[in-house]
Specification:
The complex is a heterodimer. In chain A, 31% of the residues lie in helices and 30% in strands. By secondary structure, chain A is α/β, with parallel strands linked by helices. In chain A, the strands form 4 sheets. Chain A has a 5-stranded parallel beta sheet, sandwiched between helices. A 5-stranded antiparallel beta sheet of chain A has the order 10-9-8-12-11. In chain A, helix 1 (10-23) links the parallel strand 1 and strand 2. Chain A starts with a strand and ends with a helix. By secondary structure, chain B is an alpha+beta fold. Helices cover 65% and strands 11% of the residues of chain B. Chain B contains 12 helices and 9 strands. Chain B has helices at 4-28, 36-56, 61-79, 84-113, 124-152, 158-183, 191-268, 271-281, 283-286, 296-311, 330-349, 404-413; strands spanning 30-31, 80-81, 315-321, 359-367, 370-378, 385-386, 389-390, 417-422, 426-434. In chain B, the strands form 3 sheets. A 5-stranded mixed beta sheet of chain B has the order 3-4-5-9-8, covered by helices on one side. In chain B, helix 7 runs antiparallel to helix 8. The longest helix of chain B is centred in the middle third of the chain and has 78 residues, at 191-268. The chains are: A alpha/beta, B alpha+beta. At the A-B interface, helix 4, strand 13 and helix 7 of A face strand 4, strand 5, strand 8 and strand 9 of B.
Chain lengths: 242, 447
């Protein structure tokens, strides 16, 4: 796991890095953790161009040269998965950062407690269920291992199941009730007798249908509406900002 | 006898009936997501069936009635959503309503034109007049009832709604009684029953008007009360701001002293004392500062509740990730946040056992287009359920209806959801409210 700090203030960079090192013993992981300090947006983008990838990025909003927003925008063009946390002393600019899918934001002055709180959240997200994998045996392509975060929804077509993922559809023979049990621990929501949805891709829930983030629509059964909304409430209350 | 006028009359009746069904259902039921073309197709089929049945079985009342009911049920199931019972019940209601209208219109016409009652169905001109009257009356009645329902649904108790809806129902019975009297042989003078009917209509309209005005007043008072509450909070917040300003001035003064001391120590070269001095200053770092989410209503409310909690010895933790301009009405935010925090503080205050910590944890964040709130508090006595809702602990009844129920109502009005979890010793309230954020922000600030 690689964590990057990007700020043009050297002293502040040192402070954040030291907080970070204090937190590392609490990270329950075997993987090696690299901490890297970058003194400008350009330097960070250069690192990306050289093929380095980061898992968690702390970006200061107010920097000389490329500011934090511009840096974040360009990074999002390359890497849509990295967890970005903005560091800012301008409480007003919080609004604008929602466009760049930030995970969270920290307001200066950053205290040890605040930092640890946000940092542990980010690490938990990085190692969370959305990156877990699940195995399905399909008819056409044999056994397929799919990342939970890439599954959008499952649709039951009588005895078959159509699994709609970000990279296309998979078909296999199974009952949707068993699949529901299998995916329950990843927060999948049964919205209809033949639909099982990953809440990550839900944009809005209405009484009779829900909108997915890609603009698609799925029916919500009236009988399940309250239960569906309750599960989604639980999911959002627990999850991250993006 | 089936000439053109007769056909036009029949078509008019069918068309009117279908349109009346449609308007009536629109006022009472929620529409399914359907394309325009589907809606028009369903209505066209309904009209065709109605027209066909009307032309073939014009003299068989029972068949016409059954076909009307079936058409109403068909429209209801094709275009609207809702529970099975409401979708079955509403068509029956509307058919009864239509029959009543038909009776009234027929009677009025008979009285006015002095045509024999049994001629009505065979004389096309009289029939056309009746259709016209029916149309007028029906649309008026539906307008009044649906308008009334739309504007007050949710804000009044069901019992009042029932009470007010019983008035037109009783009027229908009265109309029937008057009609019965009129049709008795030997009574030729119809001016008295007509006067009675007109009076009845006046009474009905007046009752609805007065009730509406009354409800508007109640709503206004409720809003006014909320606003007053909000103003009080703002005032408190400003007082706190003034306080913190003087504290800042104090700190600034201290700060100059500190810098002076640091310089003296540095000049003396006493690095050890200097280091210690600086380390002692770090408690400034952890000092709580004034709330500033950029959202004045939330700031005022939270800082007020924070100081109340502090006075009551409650540990109050907050985690706020909010854009400054949330598109939720401030009065609603105030009602949701204020009521839920009041409940939490109330529950903590009831803790008498020193072994239980008084704690409230609030997290407010903006995620996926939703305002997400999670409020956790500890309690000693578990809240008791009373049916679907919870019993209140409050002793003063004037605050009733401002608790969880009103939170839920406000949340649902905004299309959100509320969920309650009760675990061992903690009460968790989770609320989702869909909210947009305003995209206007001065660009200069980010330069």
């Amino acid at each position: 796991m690689r964590i990057g700090f990007c700020d043009d203030d050297k002293a502040f960079l040192e402070l954040l890095a030291s907080y970070c090192r204090e937190c590392l013993p609490f990270v329950d992981q075997d993987e090696r953790v690299d901490v890297e300090c970058l003194s400008s947006g350009e330097e960070l983008l250069k690192a990306y161009r050289l093929g380095k990838t980061f898992d968690i990025l702390f970006i200061d909003l107010k920097m000389k040269g490329l500011n934090g927003f511009e840096t974040a925008r360009q990074i999002r063009l390359i890497d849509n998965e990295v967890i970005i946390i903005f560091v800012t002393s301008l409480a007003n600019s919080v609004l604008k950062c929602f466009e760049y899918k930030p995970f969270w934001y920290l307001v200066k002055p950053v205290t040890r407690k605040n930092f640890k709180n946000v940092f542990m959240k980010a690490v938990a997200e990085r190692t969370s269920a959305s990156r877990a994998e699940c195995v399905f045996s399909t008819r056409t392509e044999g056994t397929v291992k799919l990342c939970i975060g890439n599954i959008i929804y499952l649709e039951s077509l009588s005895r078959r199941i159509r699994l709609h993922a970000t990279d296309g559809d998979y078909f296999f023979y199974a009952g949707i009730n068993e699949e529901e049990k299998k995916l329950e621990k990843y927060d999948f929501i049964r919205i209809h007798k033949s639909y099982l949805v990953n809440p990550h891709y839900i944009k809005q829930i209405n009484r009779n249908w829900l909108t997915l983030t890609d603009g698609g629509r799925l029916p919500v059964s009236g009988r399940r509406f309250k239960a569906v909304y309750d599960r989604y409430t639980d999911y959002l209350a627990r999850g991250s900002l993006s | 006898m089936k000439d053109l006028v007769w056909f036009v009359g029949e078509a008019g009746t069918s068309l009117f009936e279908v349109i009346l069904f449609y308007i009536f259902f629109n006022g009472f039921l929620t529409r399914k997501e359907a394309q325009r073309i589907r809606t028009s197709l369903v209505l066209a089929i309904a009209f065709a069936v109605q027209f066909a049945v009307g032309t073939w079985f014009y003299d068989k009342q029972v068949i016409m009635l059954i076909s009307s009911t079936l058409v109403a049920v068909f429209i209801c199931f094709a275009l609207y959503s809702g529970s099975l019972m409401t979708r079955l019940f509403s068509p029956l209601l509307v058919v009864v309503f239509m029959v009543a209208l038909e009776l009234i219109a027929t009677m009025l016409t008979v009285a006015a034109t002095r045509v024999e009652l049994h001629d009505v169905n065979t004389n096309p001109w009289v029939k056309l007049i009746i259709i016209f009257e029916k149309n007028l009356l029906g649309r008026m009645a539906v307008k009044v009832v649906t308008y009334f329902r739309r504007s007050f649904v949710g804000s009044i108790k069901t019992i009042y709604q029932l009470m007010i809806l019983i008035v037109p129902a009783i009027s229908l019975v009265l109309i029937y009684v008057i009609l019965d009297m009129m049709l008795k042989p030997g009574k030729d003078d119809v001016s008295l029953p007509i006067t009675g009917l007109l009076c009845l209509m006046y009474v009905n309209i007046m009752i609805f008007t007065i009730f509406e005005a009354f409800m508007r007043q109640v709503n206004k008072e409720y809003r006014y009360m909320l606003m007053e509450k909000q103003l009080d909070l703002q005032l408190d917040h400003y007082k706190q701001l003034a306080e913190s300003r003087s504290r800042v001035r104090e700190m600034w003064h201290d700060f100059r002293n500190h810098i002076q001391c640091i310089r003296i120590l540095f000049d003396k070269g006493d690095m050890e004392t200097l280091g210690e001095y600086i380390r002692n200053l770090t408690d400034y770092e952890e000092r709580a500062n004034v709330l500033d989410t950029g959202n004045p209503v939330i700031d005022a409310l939270l800082s007020n509740k924070q100081s109340i909690a502090a006075r009551a010895g409650i540990r109050f933790e907050m985690e706020l990730v909010l854009p400054p301009q949330l598109e939720i009405p401030p009065a609603d935010i105030c009602s949701i946040l204020g009521n839920s925090l009041d409940n939490a503080i109330e529950a903590c205050n009831r803790i008498k056992n020193p072994g239980i910590e008084k704690m409230i944890r609030l997290s407010l964040a903006y995620k996926n287009g939703y305002l997400v709130m999670e409020l956790v508090n500890t309690f000693e006595e578990a809240p008791q359920r009373q049916g679907k809702h919870f019993k209140t602990w409050k002793s003063s009844p004037q605050f009733h209806g401002l608790g969880l129920q009103s939170i839920e109502r406000t949340v649902e009005q905004n299309g959100g959801n509320m969920k309650i979890d009760i675990d061992e010793g903690t009460f968790t309230l989770k609320i989702l409210v869909p909210a947009g954020i305003q995209e206007t922000l001065p660009e200069a600030e980010h330069a």
